[in-house]
Specification:
The protein has 377 residues and is of the alpha+beta class. It has a 4-stranded mixed β-sheet with strand order 1-4-5-8. It is built from 12 helices and 8 strands. The protein is globular and about 80 Å long.
Length: 377
């Protein structure tokens, strides 16, 4: 592996960084910023040209993702980083021609209908049913923790189409129009004050058979590709790096609780921050490895799970160290709080990171079985 980026890649990094610094502060919403990214072709730069992409290298995409994550800018959408690639791999020609151009232009918002109240880590046990009636499937059931469902145009939906088959072999993958009758979305209030997660209920929703992606009853294997796309991004590591750097700066300029020196002069604080800093370097290299494998035509699987697990657990460790470093003021929110209240928000937000996109326990099983060759327990 080459541990340096090319001159062309570093030039592109400078271009991306300049664009973020100039355009992101002027954007009224994240959506308006992603529209600008779509206009430049950056949202889908690594897609094949025949599908509206630029056929950019995986390393160029990595540079872009890294700069967006570090600067807390929305550089990807669910459509561009996991739905579109899944349609390219498994979708019909009609699905590709209808949906991919709209994803490229950032005209569609997506949500992911996988988890259910009784099927989270054991996703294959899901019970939402889709029964074939002529040219449609009638869907009944419930999904939960559905990010962004309240504003989504489409959902990637997993539903059971053969209740008598082994649980991994009776599931079908659908592209569901959220405007269809019978769909109810109920937002869930989170402890960080946001309402990003939702419950979604389906009551006799009639989904066209043309919405099936891949083979009927083989949707589990389509969904694993979607999850690999979701787990492999460098944003899960680099997204917390700027917060870490802000905490280090705060510790260096804030007087110690005991007279004399700063918080950074406290050996316990300094060593805890050093450990987190080294972990960010390790996590970054793990994500670089995933991108390098993709650039060589390899398909990262357990490697993506390693990067995802390490990165999300690092965020939680960093949030705990940040709270301990700032001390009592770390509980304050608002513009006048230390670091504008970003530390407590990060701490609360980090709780869900080791659950979303596959729990750490599930990913450790993937690493053990597919990476280390260990037997299934």
């Amino acid at each position: 592996m080459e541990f340096r980026f090319t001159a062309e890649e570093e030039s592109f990094r400078t271009e991306v960084r300049s664009f973020i610094h100039e355009e992101f502060p002027k954007a009224r919403t994240g959506e308006s910023f992603t529209k600008k990214l779509a206009a430049k072709g950056w949202l889908t730069m690594s897609w094949p040209k025949e599908h509206g992409g630029q056929a950019a290298s995986h390393m160029r995409q990595l540079v872009y993702n890294e700069e967006m994550a570090y600067n807390r800018a929305p550089g990807q959408t669910m459509g561009t980083d996991r739905v579109g690639p899944t349609i390219i791999l498994f979708g019909t020609e009609a699905q590709k021609s209808e949906l991919l151009p709209r994803i490229v232009r950032d005209e569609i918002a997506w949500c992911q209908g996988f988890s259910e109240p009784g099927s989270g880590s054991d996703l294959a046990s899901l019970q939402t049913r889709a029964i074939r009636e002529g040219d449609v499937y009638v869907v009944n059931g419930q999904k939960i923790w559905t990010s962004g469902a309240q504003s989504a145009d489409y959902m990637i939906l997993l539903a059971r189409t053969d209740p008598d088959a082994p649980k991994h072999r009776g599931i079908t993958y659908f592209l569901l129009d959220m405007k269809l009758p019978g769909i109810t979305v109920r937002p869930l209030k989170q402890m960080n004050g946001q309402q990003h997660f939702n419950e979604v209920f389906f009551e006799d929703v009639r989904v066209p058979a043309t919405a099936v992606v891949g083979e009927v009853n083989r949707g589990w294997y389509v969904s694993t590709a979607t999850l690999d796309f979701e787990r492999s991004g460098i944003g899960r590591v680099i997204g917390g790096l700027k917060t870490y750097e802000e905490v280090v700066g705060y510790a260096k300029r804030t007087p110690a609780r005991a007279p004399g020196g700063t918080l950074f002069d406290d050996g316990v604080i300094r060593h805890a921050l050093a450990d987190i800093g080294l972990s960010f370097a390790v996590g970054r290299l793990m994500s670089y490895r995933v991108a390098w494998m993709q650039s060589q035509g390899m398909i990262p699987n357990y490697e993506a799970s390693m990067a995802k697990t390490f990165g999300t657990e690092l965020h939680q460790r960093m949030a705990r160290v940040a709270m301990g470093t700032v001390g009592m003021p770390s509980q304050l929110l608002g513009e006048n709080a230390p670091m504008r209240g970003n530390v407590p928000f990060t701490y609360l937000n980090a709780v869900s990171l080791t659950i979303a996109a596959g729990t750490s326990e599930v990913n450790r099983n993937i690493i053990a079985q597919r990476g280390l060759g260990m037997p299934r327990g």
